[in-house]
Design brief:
By secondary structure, the protein is mainly beta. It has strands at 2-7, 10-13, 18-26, 31-39, 46-51, 57-59, 67-72, 77-82, 91-100, 105-109, 113-118.
């Protein structure tokens, strides 16, 4: 079982920065892509950023140039540096990891961390 634990959320003013971190714990055979989804109040969860095991990255258009995702494969962590934050970035941010075992592939999720950007 792979468990993900996020940290780093909080309250920040418009234009501020936050850094989210996520660490994978447990028995970890292989981690493929890792990344972040977010869910604003009253809206569907949306994908925000992803990074492959080789370091290739991709971002939601609305966060490009402001968010930067990185990972440490030795530490099984993924981070999301968020700069120039806007009120529309407010929401719960969920870390995910795509896991491969000899028997199956599956996606693990964290519990989420709240990010609130005040105007």
């Amino acid at each position: 079982q792979v468990m993900l634990a996020e940290s780093g959320g909080g309250l920040v003013q418009t234009g501020g920065s936050l850094r989210l971190s996520c660490v994978a714990n447990g028995t970890i055979p292989r981690l493929n892509a890792m990344g972040w989804y977010r869910q604003a109040p009253g809206k569907r969860r949306e994908w925000a950023a992803v990074i492959s095991s080789g370091g290739d990255t991709n971002y939601l258009d609305s966060v490009k140039g402001r968010f930067s995702i990185s990972r440490d494969n030795a530490e099984n962590t993924v981070n999301l540096q968020m700069n120039s934050l806007k009120p529309e970035d407010t929401g719960v941010y969920y870390c995910f990891a795509d896991v491969s075992t000899t028997l199956r592939n599956f996606r693990s999720w964290g519990q989420g961390t709240q990010v609130t950007v005040s105007s």
